[in-house]
């Protein structure tokens, strides 16, 4: 799976009645496609995955897949309690997603072995490849990422922690396994501010909240950097 461009995380709009505003969501995504996102990530952090029901996840991912229509990869969020994460994985596949971003369980911490088992369980729930999301409550070590990289369905690592020393260890360790198809992303808030450092680590890709609001600015920055 190849990503080439700013990673776009759409906002999930709602109607005054409380349902997903599908038409506005499609307009939101469609209006950003001309700016060349490297991938579209519906129902993830910016899309308030933690606040969406299973049915709402299905609605959001289906709408995104319809609008994108194969132009770039669509990567859906999956996470939360294990049963919910497994259901999200299956629904995302049915809805037309190309991959999953596995968000850690909300406000829950656990040992590394448990995190690895969680990722592997989500990876087994569908045929979709998965990207690991590294967060403050879900810290992976270089050794644990090497274990996960042994699974061909685990295809990426998104760093939302900001420990560049640890990120460098993980990048080096995974690359030492020979995985040439493994992608690394800078997932920090306002990633543009830290991307210079991450690029130095060999992480050229990053997510951009700015792309959802001002795609012309986000694209100009990406092109310049």
State the helicity in percent bands: 40-55%
Count of helix runs? 9
How many beta-strand runs?
8
Content of β-strand: 5-15%
The geometry reads as: globular
H/E element string?
EHEHEHEHEHEHEHEHH
Number of domains: 1
CATH topology: TIM Barrel
Please give the radius of gyration in angstroms: 16 Å
Report on the biggest sheet: 8 strands, parallel
Would you identify the CATH H-level superfamily? Aldolase class I
Provide mean pLDDT, rounded. 96
Oligomer: single chain
Spans where pLDDT lies below 50 across 5 or more residues: none
Task: Describe the 3D structure.
It contains nine helices and eight strands. The chain has a single domain (7-224), classed as TIM Barrel, CATH 3.20.20.70. Helix 5 (142-149) packs parallel to helix 6 (164-176). Helix 5 (142-149) links the parallel strand 5 (130-134) and strand 6. It is of the alpha/beta class and 225 residues long. The relative contact order is 0.14. The protein has an eight-stranded parallel beta sheet. It is globular. 42% of the residues lie in helices and 15% in strands. It has helices spanning 22-32, 54-68, 82-95, 112-124, 142-149, 164-176, 195-200, 209-213, 215-224; strands at residues 7-8, 39-40, 75-79, 99-103, 130-134, 154-159, 183-186, 205-208. The two termini are 23 Å apart.
């Amino acid at each position: 799976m190849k990503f080439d461009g700013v990673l776009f995380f759409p906002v999930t709009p709602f109607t005054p009645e409380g349902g997903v505003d599908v038409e506005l969501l499609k307009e939101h995504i469609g209006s950003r496609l001309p700016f060349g996102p490297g991938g579209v990530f519906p129902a993830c952090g910016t899309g308030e995955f933690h606040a969406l029901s299973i049915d709402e996840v299905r609605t959001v991912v289906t709408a995104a897949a319809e609008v994108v229509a194969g132009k770039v990869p669509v990567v859906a969020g999956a996470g939360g309690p294990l049963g919910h994460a497994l259901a999200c994985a299956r629904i995302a596949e049915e809805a037309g997603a190309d991959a999953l971003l596995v968000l850690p369980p909300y406000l829950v911490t656990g040992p590394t072995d448990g995190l690895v088992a969680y990722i592997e369980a989500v990876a087994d729930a569908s045929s979709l490849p998965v990207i690991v999301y590294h967060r403050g409550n879900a810290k992976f070590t270089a050794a644990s990422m090497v274990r996960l990289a042994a699974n061909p369905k685990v295809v990426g690592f998104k760093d939302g922690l900001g420990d560049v020393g640890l990120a460098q260890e993980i990048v080096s360790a995974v690359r030492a396994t020979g995985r040439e198809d493994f992608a690394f992303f800078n997932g920090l808030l306002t990633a543009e501010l830290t991307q210079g450092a991450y690029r130095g680590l060999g992480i050229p890709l990053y997510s951009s909240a700015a792309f959802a609001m001002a795609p012309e600015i986000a694209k100009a920055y990406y092109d310049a950097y």
